[in-house]
Amino acid sequence: MKAFQESVLALSGGVGGAKLALGLADAVAPGQLHVLANTGDDFRHLGLHISPDIDTLLYTLSGKSNQVLGWGLAGETWGVMEALEKLQGETWFRLGDNDLATHLWRTAQLAEGVSLPQVTNALAQQLGISSRIHPMCEELVSTTVHSEGRDLPFQHYFVREQCEPKVTGFSFEGIADASPNADVMALLADDGFSTIVICPSNPFVSIDPILQIPRMWTTLRDSKAPLVLVSPIVSGMAIKGPAAKMMLELGVPVTALGVAQHYCELYPGLLDYFVIDESDATLSNDIAALGVKVAIAPTVMKTRDDKQRLARFILDLVG
Amino acid sequence: MKAFQESVLALSGGVGGAKLALGLADAVAPGQLHVLANTGDDFRHLGLHISPDIDTLLYTLSGKSNQVLGWGLAGETWGVMEALEKLQGETWFRLGDNDLATHLWRTAQLAEGVSLPQVTNALAQQLGISSRIHPMCEELVSTTVHSEGRDLPFQHYFVREQCEPKVTGFSFEGIADASPNADVMALLADDGFSTIVICPSNPFVSIDPILQIPRMWTTLRDSKAPLVLVSPIVSGMAIKGPAAKMMLELGVPVTALGVAQHYCELYPGLLDYFVIDESDATLSNDIAALGVKVAIAPTVMKTRDDKQRLARFILDLVG
Question: Which CATH architecture describes the domain A8-64+130-318?
Fold first, then answer.
């Protein structure tokens, strides 16, 4: 398989997005994939700075992710959590011993004044990752999930309450004062990417935080590189995570069309291509009516082959 | 062995002091031992609030201390440190997985606004300790070791540089603004202790920080309870830690007499009794000349029996 020689920018949240990022990393020449990662679910927990989506990308792209759990590191041990449990400490956010080392290291580096992009680069290098992972910004942006009558910090909603509360909306504290990742902005200004991909991540809590950083989505829209979105909704279901449940609760049609409408309304002119799954082919005309080119492919990624095939499909589509 | 029914206050640093604290805990009725612990070597490391002396007391008094290493917890595992080593993180301060749970829990509690005394109490209860462990103050007091031409944070001197730099003095940042532990002060005001013991801890970096908190040593001096100091120097050597090396470098005689002089100069009228080891009996007259009653006993504590015997000796001495 011939490697794609030009640079690709992929916007990604956690698990779902990281699958396609891995496919893209396999499909391009070493170092040509840049991932712009959501940090809107970063939080401080037990004194540590935790960046869940960055870590999922780090662990996935280095081949170290835990395939059994679907999150965290393979071969993980749980000594600290077991001891913390005995102390009746907070163990709802499961931190493996190896994973904890990442958080301790990151927290120490940040405390010494090293920036989050630099820390992320160093971690990627230590893990042998040739792709670049860029945090969407350096500032702390905190996603709040609005539910009926109460607001929840994202990880409380997502992990502690297992996405059970009914959502009514989201807000991203600190986003107005955040600056888009400087390296990515410089590359965009320099026409450094041949393709921009929005991975099949949650539109509301993974991609919206990235796009809503000041100047971000308009810069992506104005880039010469075509932008391809892969639908996170397939046959009315989310492959991973609460996207479908959120759409239902927000009164958005739980279909790839609903996803397309979300993006076209909030970010007019951003999408060039919309990749939907074969099973959703009947939605093509309605999506095309929004002014977006529709492409149809198998989008469910179970094997590494699936990931590579979808990545090649996207790169061929715009090539 | 009949338990001593009255309350005892013991001032202690880490390992050496904790040995006698354990002996005292065995000798008194449950709940009657109060330990006033040095927190001058507390520090933030990898984002965590670490209280080395409190933890040594917690682990020793709960019978969970690591007898092989001489610090930390028995049956410890090192998953996080191994992973942190791979990330080329700071591993000079060895944090076991179980020990880390303590630090994570403490850090989280402090972040929620729980005070250090409350956190320490809760940890003691979770570990099944009937004695009370009181941090000397709630504020962060940071010991700096002055060496020739440079200043070192205490743990850098003590752990990272293995006490190798030659010391010229010490300072305790934040101590002028610290308040002595309120529970201990209330008990002292109420004549709540029958005996006050200064454990055989390092005079310079374990006991001085406690005594130099505003109002602390004068309140102890003015208490009706007799105060007994156990010499940390035996036959010109420190049983544990750098006390002897420090005395040598500071030009203080490396003997129990040197220790007595240190206390009598800095805290006149504080000491009532000074317990020295049998091997130092020849120093009795010189120490007595400082206006302190001298008592002679075997002070080297290897077994649990040794610890209990020394504790009984002290309690009988003033009883």
Answer: 3-Layer(aba) Sandwich (3.40)
